[in-house]
Design goal:
four-stranded antiparallel sheet; secreted; mainly beta; 9% helix; disordered N terminus
């Protein structure tokens, strides 16, 4: 009887997976047609000129406080009942880059600046923040205004960390000039990954990608020091260019995009898995080698090929199932791979796919036994135009074990 029940579940899973429908366990967390803000009870739900500019006859976009259409969410993180959502300043009219909402809010809540409204102007541009096991929110403020034709460095790029129990800033560390290649580097600092043990919170390491000038920056909290690593595996693969994402051909040359860590092995060592966005290959290295740049140089990190059209952005590791999940932007999908298997196309599976609801997953995060994804269709924003009467920005939640059931990632499968 138990075997028959499992067989029926497997048939249902395969049927839904093959027809581009919702996999078992999907929940819509939030959805927005356009972004709104709540500044201490004042609701901004339509474009607004800056008060100081209203007296001028010729008001430019740079003068405008809020241009609703330009506010595109890029990153997210979850902590308790709060969901953090970032809006990098890639256009004018973005009043707050680091924001949050409560899970108990309605389907399309207005964003609130974090930690408070008065702090919204201290950050320039934040992409994908991360929470560590010590209850701290880590982020990189690129300090870079990325408006096309008007790019400028407003302030030095910096690592900023908050204590989420008090919502107080713990420290701000400005990156060194030797961490950057040129004026393009700061805009490429779009994710941060934290390695730390809960028993020694002051001995944390942060690994920051640089997709623009294709490198990695490592930061030691204990030493309050940072250094840059350059390696061939951080560089985009020309053979993987010109893929389709959210219905548009992508010719970006984005290098190192995402870094995820395993749990410690018996010797207390972790492995970092990483990849460029424009690549179908995966790489891995013991993090002890990232902490010593003299050991890292020349090391072979290639572990295998994910397969055709597997260009992926963010990825994250689920400890209990020993599975890495990928935001597969080239197929509007989520991929899985169990790290106990060889990295080959046969061992990589599509566990969710939807050409509308998963059209460009901008961020993906494993929280407990669930996966959160932020979908923003940003190729449409860049190459075309959103229909503001449709839901353009989505946050979904999936149950890990529902997704991998019956796939090559399910090591419990017969």
């Amino acid at each position: 009887m138990l075997y028959f029940f499992y067989f029926v579940l497997l048939l249902i899973y395969n049927e839904t997976k093959g027809h581009n429908q919702r996999p078992i366990g999907l929940q819509e967390v939030f959805k927005w047609k356009q972004i709104e803000y709540d500044f201490d009870g004042v609701l901004y739900n339509s474009s607004t000129d800056d008060i100081s500019a209203k007296k001028q006859e010729n008001v430019t976009d740079a003068d405008k406080f809020f241009i609703q259409y330009n506010n595109v969410p890029i990153g997210m993180e979850v902590y308790g009942d709060r969901v953090f959502i970032t809006i990098p300043r890639r256009r004018h009219g973005i009043p707050s880059t680091l924001n949050y909402v409560k899970k108990s809010c309605d389907d399309s809540p207005a964003l609130k600046p974090y930690p408070d409204t008065k702090s919204r102007s201290k950050f320039i541009s934040v992409y994908r923040p991360r929470v560590d096991v010590c209850g701290r929110l880590w982020m990189v403020d690129t300090g870079h205004l990325e408006v096309p034709g008007e790019r400028k460095q407003i302030q030095p790029p910096a690592i900023v960390v908050y204590d989420l129990r008090t919502d107080k800033q713990l420290f701000r560390y400005e990156l060194k000039s030797t961490d950057l290649v040129n004026e393009r580097s700061s805009a490429g600092l779009t994710s941060i990954t934290i390695e730390v043990d809960k028993k020694s919170c002051n001995n944390a390491y942060a690994y920051i990608n640089d997709l623009a000038t294709e490198g990695m920056i490592v930061f030691s909290l204990k030493d309050m020091d940072s250094w840059r690593l350059d390696h061939r595996s951080f560089v985009h693969d020309e053979r993987a260019m010109n893929f389709t994402a959210a219905g548009y051909v992508i010719n970006w040359k984005d290098g190192l995009f995402s870094i995820t860590l395993t749990d410690p092995d018996v010797n207390g060592k972790r492995k970092a898995f990483y990849h460029p966005l424009v690549s179908t290959q995966e790489f891995a290295i013991n993090t002890e080698l990232l902490k010593d740049k003299t050991k890292f140089l020349g090391h072979n990190t290639y572990i295998g090929e994910r397969g055709n059209n597997t260009q992926s952005g963010s990825h994250d590791y689920h400890v209990p199932s020993r599975t890495i999940f990928y935001a597969n932007v080239a197929q509007d999908a989520i991929l899985c791979w169990n790290i106990d298997t060889e990295m080959t196309p046969d061992n990589v599976a599509i566990v969710a796919q939807d050409h509308k609801k998963l059209a460009y997953i901008s961020d993906l995060k494993v929280i407990g036994d669930e996966i959160y994804v932020l979908v923003n269709q940003i190729p449409k924003f860049i190459y075309s135009r959103f229909d503001t009467e449709e839901y353009n920005y989505l946050i979904h939640r999936y149950r890990v074990f529902d997704l991998i059931l019956g796939t090559v990632c399910d090591r419990a499968a017969p």
